[in-house]
From TrEMBL:
Organism superkingdom: Bacteria
Family recorded in the similarity comment: Belongs to the histone deacetylase family.
GO terms, biological process: acetoin catabolic process; epigenetic regulation of gene expression
Pathway the protein takes part in: Ketone degradation; acetoin degradation
GO MF entries: histone deacetylase activity
Residues annotated as domain Histone deacetylase: 29-326
PANTHER family listed in its UniProt record: HISTONE DEACETYLASE HDAC1 (PTHR10625:SF10), HISTONE DEACETYLASE HDAC1-RELATED (PTHR10625)
UniProt KW keywords: Acetoin catabolism
Lineage: Bacteria, Bacillati, Actinomycetota, Actinomycetes, Kitasatosporales
Regions crossing the membrane: none
Name of the protein: Acetoin utilization protein AcuC
Species of provenance: Kitasatospora aureofaciens (Streptomyces aureofaciens)
């Protein structure tokens, strides 16, 4: 998108239903639904929900026929059983485990989140709106027959599957969560219509221990998966360098009709479950870049979801509010103070002080990969490995 158009309001359907906060594994679990409520309250406090071209919508839960686009019938029945009998464990289906505790709303809340992402995809494909956001979504670890990594139903995969059902022929999925987007990759491993791209912390140091550069797609879809695992400790400059070294060229070569993205906020330096050192400011820049890439290569069709992120007060609400603002074409100045009413709501809910500004005070910058490669640098080694593994499949030079 040209520089002059960055602040032009875009059409946005923001999918939100307060009931998504019932996706609650219980006290002490990292996946605290408070992060969702605080994000929406910050969106509202900044007036982003009522801006030009913005519509806040709710969609019904995904029905069984929709869930079966990705998940097996046996698994959906197992999730329903877990909802009726949360005291029972079902490790074969990943339910009632250390990561994925069972709870009475496990099916209904998961299906509701999935329904928002599927409806977002439908709205973008129909042309009702160029952009749609479901920050409650992004549950990218769920497998066809098993819950995994706090994820029960894989809403990004379901959104993509619905787009394929509607006739889309090329869909790109870009995942910038700190964890590998393994469930989405698995769902479309052998489907040349879907390109999955994941930047994540190296599998040697983080769950789910997948996402190696050598994972490039099934026999009928070589090059349909791209993975760039980053060394632990990678900060803004390295993260942005890696993103720009991989994603834009792949999207230019693939020319997707729709861009689906996952914006896990757990790359942040304060996240308690991972080891990257990224700021809210860099996360905002990546959202802006993906916005521009959607306009450049996908006719503006963009479906964005949330994902991981366990710094519930300090990080997630600001990062996803920036995402909403970007998708609405109304970016929030990082120096903006967080509204006093929102800070009071944060304290009321958590008894913790809220961040005072929409920035971490960073001014991220990076060197373009084409400007020089350091063979002794671990990050550059990782970038080169990711490019060499997948670029030739798309006629690109590594």
């Amino acid at each position: 998108m040209p520089e002059a158009e960055r602040d032009t309001p875009c059409g946005l359907h923001l999918f939100w239903d307060e009931a998504v906060t019932a996706y609650d594994f219980g006290p002490g679990h990292p996946m605290d639904p408070t992060r969702l409520a605080l994000t929406m309250r910050l969106v509202e406090a900044l007036g982003l929900d009522t801006g030009p071209g913005v519509t806040v919508r709710s969609a019904p839960p995904a029905g069984e026929s929709t869930l079966h686009l990705v998940h097996t019938r046996e698994y959906v029945e197992a999730v329903k059983h877990a909802a009726a009998h949360p005291e029972q464990s079902d490790p074969r289906h990943g339910l009632g485990t250390d990561d994925n505790w069972s709870f009475p709303a496990v099916h209904s809340a998961s299906a509701l989140i999935a329904g928002q992402s599927v409806a977002a995809a439908e709205a973008v494909w129909r042309g009702d709106t160029p952009h749609a956001v479901n920050f409650a979504g992004g549950l990218h670890h769920a497998m066809p027959g098993k819950a995994s990594g706090f994820c029960v139903y894989n809403d990004p995969a379901l959104a993509i599957a619905r787009l394929l059902e509607l006739g889309a022929e090329r869909i790109a999925y870009v995942d910038v969560d700190v964890h590998h987007g393994d469930g989405v990759q698995e769902a479309f491993w052998n489907d040349p219509r879907v390109l999955t791209v994941s930047l994540h912390e190296h599998p040697a140091t983080l769950f789910p221990q997948t996402g190696w550069p050598s994972e490039t797609g099934g026999p009928d879809a070589p090059g349909s998966a791209a993975n760039l695992p980053l060394p632990a400790g990678t900060g803004d400059a390295g993260w942005l360098r890696a993103f720009h070294a991989l994603v834009p060229e792949l999207l230019e070569a693939f020319r997707p009709q729709v861009l689906v993205t996952q914006h896990g906020a757990d790359t942040h330096l304060e996240d308690p479950l991972a080891h990257l050192a990224v700021t809210v400011d860099a996360q905002r820049l990546i959202a802006e870049e993906l916005h521009e890439l959607a306009h450049r290569y996908a006719d503006g069709r963009w479906v964005a979801t949330g994902g991981g992120g366990y710094a519930v007060v300090d990080v997630v609400p600001r990062t996803w509010t920036h995402l909403v603002a970007t998708a609405a074409g109304r970016p929030v100045d990082p120096a903006t103070e967080t509204p006093e009413a929102w800070r009071a709501e944060v304290y009321r809910r958590t008894r913790r002080p809220a961040p005072l500004r929409m920035t971490d005070g960073a001014r991220p910058a990076w060197r373009d990969f084409e400007s020089g490669y350091d063979p002794a640098d671990r990050l550059d080694q990782a970038i080169l490995a990711g490019r060499r593994a997948v670029f030739p499949h798309h006629g690109l030079l590594a």
